[in-house]
Each structure stands twice: as structure tokens, then as C-alpha cells.
Amino acid sequence: MNLIKSGVVTATLFNAVLSTTSLAENTATENIKDSKSTILAVANENITATKEQFTNSKSKIELMAKLAKIEFFSAKFTQKTFDESGVELQQGSGQLSVSKPNLVNWQTKLPDESLIVSDGSNLWFYDPFVEQVSVYTLQNAIANTPILLITNNDPKLWQDYRVSQLSDNNYLIQAKNDNARVKSLELTFSDNGAREQLIAFNILDATGQLSVISLSEHNNQANNDLFNFTVPEGVYLDDQR
């Protein structure tokens, strides 16, 4: 009887050990599966991120190469502004002139007169209606005036933006900074292979307001006088430098 009892105890213990071993093996197997799933998930995320970085880098290089071919242009522009719901708020027109490096003359004639001039070091905003000029250092202004990107091929400047190619001649530039006043800048080039020509750009600001600008009547003969600014007599100067 004692032998039988001893055999039963031994069998029970043996079964318990087997059960524990089996449970441990199952747990280990599940842990391995979980680890594999985690590793695969992380790997897929890394692959996706790498692909996005590669695509962004490739698009940025291609866009910068296009812009590098544009040394100077002047063109008439028409502008339509929409709110975040797509309701048209305003129409305008004027003249835009751009030269490298960092030179801009953006004169709005309708509906109200205003002038933005970058002289390469400073950015001037002139509002004749209120008789005031505001001036900023170019470095501080670029973050909120991404149109200046088209005048500069400095890679350090472009590090703050992501670039994606929407089509052969259409690129989207997006600010990496979530607090940027301008969220994105979309550039459209002509299909003319002989000369790179910017024919339109859209600006989306942080409020959701969209400005759609079309360019026409391009003039490619440089005029550096456009990029000098002198504060008019009697106009208040708000110096933010």
C-alpha cells in the first residue's frame, strides 16, 4: 500500500512538474511571439520612417535643384484668399520680384497697397494706409515668411521643413514646427523644360486661411534697385530687429 501511495505521489509530482514545464514552455513561446511581434512592429515603423525620410530628402533635393536654376524673376500676380471653410474672403493683385540670395520685392496694389522688401539682411513691411514700416532681421522673418525659401539654397535653412512631391511640377513644403504661423507652402512650376519657371504658389497659415497666388507675364531681367528700401519721410518705423 505504501508503495502504491508513494507511486501515486510520485506520479502526481511528475504530472505537476510536466504541467509546470508545459506552462513555462507555453509562456516562453508566447513571450517569444510577443517579442517577435514587437520587433517586427518596431522594424516596420523604422522602415516606414526611413522610407519617409528618404522620400522627403529626395523631394527636397529635387525642389532645391529646380529653385537653384532660378536666379531672378519678376511677375504680375493675382491672389485669392479663402477661410478654413473654403469661403472666398478677398481678391488681390500686384507685382512680385525675387532674386538670389534672399531678395524679395512683393508689392500688393489691390485691394490695398502694401509692400514687402527683403534686402538680404532685413525684411521690411510697409503699410502706406497707416503710414508705418515694420522691420525684422531676415533670419527671424524666414520662419514666418517661407516664400523666402525660393531665394535660398542653404541646407541649414531647409532643415526646418519637410518637402513632398505632389506631381512632376508640384511640391509641398511643410513646417516641422507645430507653432509656425505658416503651415505649408505649395509651389507649382511650368512644364517648360528649357527654363524653370514658378507659375503659382499657395500659402496655408495657422488659422486655416489659404492664399492662392497665380503668376503671369514673367520678366527674367534682373533689377537690383527693387530690393533697396528707404523709410519714407514722416512714416513711423517699428524696428523689431
Q: Strands of the biggest beta sheet: in what spatial order? A: 7-8-9-10-11-1-2-3-4-5-6-12
Oligomer: single chain
| Number of DSSP-assigned strands | 12
Briefly note the CATH topology name of the largest domain. Answer: outer membrane lipoprotein receptor (LolB), chain A
Mean pLDDT: 83
CATH level-two architecture of the largest domain = Clam
The percent of residues in helical segments reads 25-40%
Overall shape: elongated
Order of helices and strands: HEEEEEEHHEEEEEE
Structure keywords:
about 240 residues, alpha+beta, twelve-stranded mixed sheet, outer membrane lipoprotein receptor (LolB), chain A
Task: Explain the overall architecture.
- By secondary structure, the chain is α+β, with helices and mostly antiparallel strands.
- It starts with a helix and ends with a strand.
- It has 2 domains: 1-68; 70-239, Lipoprotein localisation LolA/LolB/LppX (outer membrane lipoprotein receptor (LolB), chain A, Clam).
- Mean pLDDT is 83; it is low at 1-18.
- It contains 3 helices and 12 strands; from the N terminus they run αββββββααββββββ.
- Strands 7-8-9-10-11-1-2-3-4-5-6-12 form a 12-stranded mixed sheet.
- Helices cover 32% and strands 38% of the residues.
- A hairpin with a 2-residue loop joins strand 7 (161-167) and strand 8.
- It is elongated, with a radius of gyration of 31 Å.
